[in-house]
Specification:
The structure holds 3 protein chains of 3 kinds. Chain B has 8 helices and no strands. By secondary structure, chain B is mainly alpha-helical. In chain B, helix 1 runs antiparallel to helix 2 and helix 2 packs antiparallel against helix 3. Chain C is mostly helical. Chain C has one domain: Methane Monooxygenase Hydroxylase, Chain G, domain 1. Chain C is 66% helix and 0% strand. The longest helix of chain C is centred in the C-terminal third of the chain and has 53 residues. Classes of the chains: A mainly alpha, B mainly alpha, C mainly alpha.
């Protein structure tokens, strides 16, 4: 690898991270707008036209907020917990191919890389809860980490079917294997399990038990304020983007679109983003529609429904592939 | 030269963090240093052209077993005084056992003969069809029995965990 | 030869890891200069619905969490065995399918046992 290639990689990283962070900022805005309109409200309206500058105002506010570290908190762990979350979330971006030739690192173990980093994300939750020295944070952290690790298995197992069909764990290969039809048509069970588990894995409604306001205040980040809280927020939204991107790549055909008439002139990135946005909208929609699950229901759902379903899907896929 | 430098870096960090793991007073800090340790071991696997092993190192060791450690540490709920008490009376015995282990390790390492010829799985061969594919092909044909035995070991782990935990509840 | 291989295709991963670390640390470190810091004991006390904190914050919790973590380790190992199998499935065919069914079957026994004993029940 020459100096030039390293330079290009730097530029790619810079572009990708900037784009994703802008997406994160405006995903928060869209979420408030979408949910607002679904509930017959207007959402943010005051900062800029139709509240368009609201994310920037939020960022400035968070950035200049006083930094409160609760007494008796474990300072180094308290400091490192949100940083681990951000590192795990942003580094996952490396293997996401936005279009055929754009991925920062085209790894053969693409899916495993994503799974490995998302398993590291559990640390930020459990450590934040422990370091805060607060009952709500501790219980929230425990609950959230138990939830995240339970659904991680379902996510991993649901992707096995995709790997069997594509014969590879490389995300570019997986998209290329879908040139005839997207895998959602042949792996509907896996897609269902993946989407539901992704919502639980990113701690979003209706599985946002760790932040169940009515019982746990704000869960594991109860004691976090200012930019530290902002980092948790950022990690959550980046994780949401990544889960949507993985679902797009593994089940919806990635950057591929219909190849006829004017559709064949649409750039690949547009197809990719349309699918990702649709999934992110689905996240918002579900949050506005469904009430929160109870914790025992949530764990039961993961262990008693999703894991057996994903295993059954693997067996069925294996049988079908034999004949 | 460059690979040796990388290896030196990883070796130093791995040994250094190992020492940090066993000398921290707070077990949670030990776990965090262990996380750093595991990440470096994973990177070392990458230098052996074993990307699947590197991924497993993170997924299983860092992502699962270490999280289990964290849960157990929190379950025990160590008080501050308990955390202070270290180096119990048995430590000379521990040092002795460690020394014996090192002697064995040196003896074993000195026996290693580097094969003059390369086996069929050279770096080029593995990279041409991918690490996962190669592992899959070998593991599920040549090493069938160890693989099936693994499932029995895992079964024992499930039963053991359930039995132990249930007894505690009653 | 050992010690001669450099995983060059992982260099971008290293770069993005460094970039992500910087993005995580920068707001916190720059913020130290810009943020106000006026602490007093009541502000720093952990949140407990407005009353002074009572008792030990890191309470002992249900042993359930331990069982879940243990089961997680087991099933994670199972999933890891499935990945290379899935990728190589086209090449190794029926033989490996039967093998994997035995593997999953044995683990299923453990799963059903854990379910029957109420280990994944969260009463």
């Amino acid at each position: 690898m020459t100096i030039l290639e390293i330079g290009i990689t730097f530029i790619k990283v810079f572009i990708l991270v900037t784009i994703v962070l802008l997406h994160v900022a405006y995903a928060t805005y869209c979420e408030r707008k979408v949910i607002g309109h679904m509930q017959a409200r207007l959402g943010p309206m005051h900062v800029g036209p139709h509240g368009l500058l609201q994310p920037i105002a939020d960022f400035v506010k968070l950035f200049f907020k006083e930094d409160i570290i609760p007494s008796n908190a474990d300072k180094p762990v308290f400091f490192i917990a949100p940083v681990i979350g951000v590192i795990a979330a942003l580094s996952s971006l490396a293997v996401i191919p936005l279009w055929e030739t754009f991925s920062i690192a085209n790894l053969n173990i693409g899916i495993l890389y994503i799974l490995a980093l998302s398993s590291l994300g559990a640390y930020s939750i459990i450590l934040a809860g422990w370091a805060s020295n607060s009952k709500y944070a501790f219980l929230g952290g425990l609950r959230a980490s138990a939830q995240v690790i339970s659904y991680e298995i379902a996510i991993g197992l649901s992707l096995v079917g995709v790997m069997m069909l594509a014969g590879s764990a490389n995300l570019v290969d997986i998209v290329n294997a879908q040139s005839m039809y997207p895998f959602i048509l042949v792996q509907p069970i896996a897609f269902f399990v993946f989407i539901m588990s992704a919502i639980a894995e990113t701690n979003r409604a209706p599985f946002d038990l760790p932040e169940a306001e009515s019982e746990l205040v704000a869960g594991y980040f109860t004691e976090y304020s200012g930019m530290r809280f902002g980092l948790f927020f950022m990690a959550e939204y980046v994780a949401m983007f990544i889960m949507s991107a993985i679902a797009t790549i593994c089940f919806l055909g990635g950057w591929k679109g219909p190849d006829f008439w004017v559709f064949s002139y649409v750039p690949q990135i547009v197809w990719f983003l349309i699918k990702v946005y649709a999934l992110i909208f689905f996240y918002f929609w579900i949050r506005a529609t469904l009430p929160r699950y109870r914790y025992d229901q949530l764990m039961g759902l993961g262990w008693k429904l999703f894991i057996p379903l994903a295993l059954a899907n693997i067996v069925i896929t294996g049988l079908v592939k034999l004949f | 030269m460059l690979p040796k430098l990388f290896f030196a870096y990883f070796a130093v960090v791995i040994v250094g963090t190992s020492i940090l793991v066993i000398t921290r007073k707070n077990p949670i800090h030990s776990v965090l240093w262990m996380l750093v340790l595991f990440v470096h071991i994973a990177a070392l696997y990458l230098f052996l052209n074993a990307e699947f092993l590197a991924a497993i190192q993170i997924i299983i060791y860092a992502g699962a077993i270490l999280v289990l450690f964290l849960f157990v540490i929190m379950l025990l709920n160590l008080k501050r005084e308990e955390m202070e008490k270290r180096f119990q009376k048995q430590w000379p015995l521990g040092v002795f056992a460690g020394m014996v282990f090192i002697v064995f390790l040196v003896l074993i390492l000195s026996q290693i003969v580097v094969f003059p010829q390369l086996g069929p799985y050279s770096i080029q061969a593995i990279q041409s069809e991918g690490n996962l594919m190669t592992v899959g092909k070998v593991l599920y044909t040549e090493y069938l029995l160890p693989f099936e035995i693994t499932s029995v070991i895992l079964l024992v782990a499930i039963i053991g965990a359930v039995v132990l935990a249930k007894r505690k509840v009653n | 030869m050992p010690g001669t291989y450099i995983p060059i295709n992982y260099l971008p991963v290293l770069i993005i890891l460094i970039a992500a670390t910087l993005i995580g640390l920068a707001p916190l470190l720059i913020g130290i200069i810009l943020r106000p810091r006026r602490p007093y004991p009541a502000k720093l006390s952990p949140y407990e619905s407005g009353i002074p904190p009572v008792g030990e914050p890191r309470e002992r919790f249900s042993v359930k969490f331990y069982i879940i973590a243990m089961l997680f380790v087991v099933f994670d190992v199972e999933a890891v065995f499935l990945y290379p199998w899935a990728v190589a499935y086209d090449k190794i065919g029926l033989y490996s399918f039967i093998e994997m069914m035995i593997f999953i079957y044995i683990l299923l026994v453990g799963y059903i046992y854990a379910w029957g004993k109420g280990a994944i029940e969260w009463e």
